[in-house]
Amino acid sequence: MTFRVGVVALVATLFASTGVRAGSISISISPVVELRDGVLAAKVDIKNSGDEAAHSVAPVLSFRGKELRGAAREELGPNQSMTAELSLPASDLTPGRWPYRVAVDYTDANQYPFQALHVAWVTLGNPPPAKLSVAEVKAEPLARSGSLRVRLKNLAAAARQTSVRVVVPEGVEVTQPEQSLALPAWEEAAVSAPLINRTALAGSRYPVFIAAEYDDDGVHQAVIGQGMLEITNVRSFFQSERQLLWIAAAVLVLAWLGFLSWQFGSGRLRRATPPRG
Question: What is the pLDDT of residue 246?
């Protein structure tokens, strides 16, 4: 029996300076994935819709701790596409929804490495809908370090123990990629995952994904959430705390004016008059 899922997603955009004008590489991934006879087979269409060529473009399929890298294409020009077929062993699966990852490694004209990313799930059998939803995936603009907030909601009357995995592109590190989250019946709960910028360049925008999984009566369930991560320049203390500094300055001015008003009101400050002759 064959089960498949096909998803199209715009997964990464890089803005880079190219001489006197700004150029971009924008990689989209369109996978069609099948579970067939103990094998996860993926047909992946990759397109560059930017206006600069991507180089050394290679797809990577990951599933349950296994990974396979496809052959690299030397150059993928603007509005050009390529197709790759990849497969990994997928035996001993219980019915349900199982997450997989497709990444595309590439470089710009300066051979600086980047990675586009796509995460989704493939279905085995006929499982009921997952009783879990991703309420929020939010990341602050990242310069050196930051965090990703994930909020989940339990849609069932029973408490649930959920595994939450954060997936980010290479160049950004998640120091706690997988965490366990207890969800009371009908309630929401949140986790925070620390992020560190290792090699991502300012001006890049990447999607970040979370895969929340749990088991229920022999059925494996998974839900996928997606957010956007913006890479920014490192700012100085005065730049990052500009608003706070303006507020502090305003408070000091108001305090000084209040002090002067009190001094005049109490008669402590009076203009000196010359003595009478």
Answer: 73
Classified as helix, coil or strand, 111 is coil
Kindly report the average pLDDT of the chain as a whole number: 86
Distance CA 258, CA 152 (A): 49
- Contacts of residue 181, defined as CB under 8 A and 6 or more positions apart, other chains included, come to 152, 161, 162, 163, 164, 189, 191, 212
The length of the chain is 277
As a whole number of angstroms, the distance between CA 170 and CA 172 comes to: 5
Run of H or E residues at 238? helix 237-240
- Stretch (H or E) spanning 6: strand 2-6
Q: How many CA atoms lie within 13 A of 27 on its CB side?
A: 35
Q: What is the DSSP letter of 92?
A: S
Candidates 120, 67, 63; CA nearest to 90 is: 63
At residue 77, the 3 state secondary structure works out as coil
Burial of 210 (0-12, 13-18, 19+ CB in 10 A): buried
3-class SS shares of the chain: helix, strand, coil, % to 5: 10, 60, 30
At 12 the pLDDT is: 43
Pick from 58, 171, 42, 184: nearest CA to 112:
171
Mean pLDDT of 179-193: 97
Residue-wise pLDDT for 224-253, tens only, equals: 999 999 999 986 445 455 677 678 777 787
Q: Does pTM surpass 0.85?
A: no
